[in-house]
Amino acid sequence: MIKIIIGLAAKLSVFSAIMMASGCIHIYQSIGHSHGAYVATVSGKEYEPIANRWDYQNKALVYIYRPNSQWAADEVEAPSFYIDDERVFNIRANGYTWFELEPGEYEVVMRRPLFGLEGIETFDLKRIAEMQLHVEAERVYYLRYSEIDPPSEDQLVMVDEIVSGDGPLQLVTTQLAHNELDATRMLPEGGRFIQTQGPLSEDELEEVFDSRVVDNADEDSNTMKWWW
Hints:
Blueprint: H1 2-22, E1 27-29, E2 60-66, H2 70-73, E3 80-83, E4 86-90, E5 95-101, E6 104-111, E7 117-120, E8 123-124, E9 127-135, E10 140-145, E11 158-159, E12 162-163, E13 165-166, E14 169-171, H3 174-181, E15 185-186, E16 192-194, H4 202-217, H5 219-222
């Protein structure tokens, strides 16, 4: 079964590459990277804090992790994690990674793939979570992803008295993160710097607004709100 899935993924990868190279359409995909813990367990180094080995005076540090669970361990395909529309990694059970971020505002989106494919243009096969993440220099943030074991209210980080997160993806306290990160291992992707895209121009804002009007009209049929 696994060989069949890998074979289909390889064929889809070729098709996706051709479509993207032609410039015809924007495809969201993580072909070759979407293997879940059931197919490939996380085998990186055990969690180790970065301490001061990052540019803390000018950057923010964000840890993203996923506690282990039977649900996550049995997963064939792992969700993709996007920052400002760039897929940066897929998050498997018992895994973590980190990024240095330039201070600013970021759009975070998680998508669940099917044979590595996740969406086309404004259509998402399954969008798991979406949130705005504001980060400041010299600060450390912890994003926790878990479908079946949500943190308690006192373990959530509030921004302007509002919980910062969406569904299974939540910004959590340092204490909870440190307790759970000790059991995780480093994922193969991550550990790098990401620069904010900065404020959008007036033309870009108008384009985004127009596309969201279309998205909202089709939201019930195109975007699934439940977790898979």
